[in-house]
Here is the input.
Amino acid sequence: VIVIGDGEPGDQRASQDAIKALEAEECILLGLGIGQGARGMKNYFREGLFGVPVEQVSASLANLIREQLVP
Here is the structure.
């Protein structure tokens, strides 16, 4: 599951609960935070990229996926 955001969630508790539920199902969760306002996303996700400039989103997303697929 890849979560793309540009800041803090509107409902932090619900977001944390959803993340915990997915982790309990052994889903791979990746966060991609767009812009400086999204640096706080790193508090929710074990893996991902945060604070990515808009012009680098596509390349960053491709690299993030590649890192998960290629051991």
Summary: The mean pLDDT is 93. Strands lie at 2-5, 30-34, 48-52. The radius of gyration is 12 Å. The chain is about 35% helix and 20% strand.
